[in-house]
Amino acid sequence: MDLGIRGRHAIVCAASQGLGRACAESLAREGVSLTLNARREEPLARAAEEIARAHGVAVDFVAGDLTEQDARDRLIERCPAPDILVCNPGIRQVPGDFRTWSREDWLWWWDAHFHAMIDLIARTTPGMCERRFGRVVSITVSFIKFPQVGFAHSHSARLALSGAIAAMARELIPHNVTINSVAPGLFDTDALHTNLHGHAARGNTTYEAIVEDRKRTCPAGRFAAPEECGDLVAFLCGDKAGFLTAQNIVNDGGVYQGLF
User: Fold this and answer.
1) What are phi and psi of 87, to 5 degrees?
2) Is-contact 79 6, C-beta < 8 A?
3) φ/ψ (deg, to 5) at 150
4) Which of 233, 252, 245 is nearest to 146 (CA)?
5) Whole-angstrom Cα distance, residue 140 to residue 229?
6) Which residue of 76, 100, 146, 190 has the fewest C-beta atoms within 10 A of its own C-beta?
7) Neighbour tally for 204: CB within 10 Å
8) Statement: residue 120 has pLDDT above 80
């Protein structure tokens, strides 16, 4: 299927690896030029070079931590008129005890998962509206549908972002600008395996046992390949998805059993 976005330009956050990289690859395959962001310059530059060589599209990059205003300013300066924005905080969640968290701890997660993404959306969507085309996709996690013990800090900010997106989407859709969230489950990324190693250490069990347990509790019986998220995001960014907005799409192999 031709998604009708060849020649468009996208900003993709946390794009040096994992799901962000997969989203960038899927968009590049559709002929979309890219401006990539991640914290570390070396792996980001390497990803940009590899994607440009593989897909024949222009790929620029801006290294920096998007919790910092300067990094967001530099990203927008480099790509002031994107047609597509993929919001992906790219922060590995580490469980903790909410009783030990300070106000600063809570605010850091809100800056990372909520304010940084809202700022990018607020600064890019006016131009999208003027040009009568825009697609914003926020990468969150499936666990916001069934919050997990130890992750109250990230869940609270992610839920707030999903709610804000749903409200903003209804203001933008008359201008052919959509905003949707994708909530991935267990995808075969370095972040997942780091997390599972941590669970194994805390639970006094083996990594292999944790992996088998997670696969057993997933109806699909496996971890998903990163491109299964990237291709979904690319579809949401296409001109065929112009009537789909304000949705939080769970992509988790059937783990979440609710209807809403």
Assistant:
1) -85, 120
2) no
3) 95, -5
4) 252
5) 11
6) 100
7) 6
8) yes
**pTM of the predicted structure, to 2 decimals:** 0.95
The total number of residues written for the chain in this structure: 260
Give the integer Cα–Cα distance in Å for 197 and 218.
Answer: 18
Structure tokens at 109: 């997660």
Question: Are the C-beta atoms of residues 63 and 41 closer than 8 Å to each other?
Answer: yes
- CATH code of the domain occupying 9-185+226-250: 3.40.50.720
* Pair of tokens at residue 163: 């709610």
Place 12 in a pLDDT band, splitting at 50, 70 and 90: very high
Query: How far is residue 226's CA from residue 12's CA, in Å, rounded to a whole number?
Result: 15
**E-strand spans in 69-210?**
84-87, 134-139, 177-184
- Cβ-contact 260, 56 below 8 angstroms: no
In the chain, where are the structural domains located? 9-185+226-250, 187-223
Helix (H) or strand (E) holding 171: helix 152-172
C-alpha closest to that of 252 among 213, 227, 211, 223: 223
- Residue 36 pLDDT: 98
Residue, of 246 and 153, whose pLDDT is higher: 246
Whether the per-residue pLDDT at 194 is higher than 70: the answer is yes
Handedness of CA 22, 27, 30, 34 (dihedral sign): negative
Q: Closest by alpha carbon to 236, among 17, 18, 30, 21? A: 30
Encode pLDDT of 44-90 as tens digits: 999 999 999 999 999 999 999 999 999 999 999 999 999 999 999 87
* Joined tokens for residue 161: 């972002």
Rounded to an integer, what distance in angstroms lies between the CA atom of residue 44 and that of residue 55? 16
Say how many C-beta atoms besides its own lie within 10 A of residue 4's C-beta.
Answer: 16
Which of 146 and 54 is assigned the larger pLDDT? 54
Q: Which of 192, 248, 195 is nearest to 222 (CA)?
A: 192
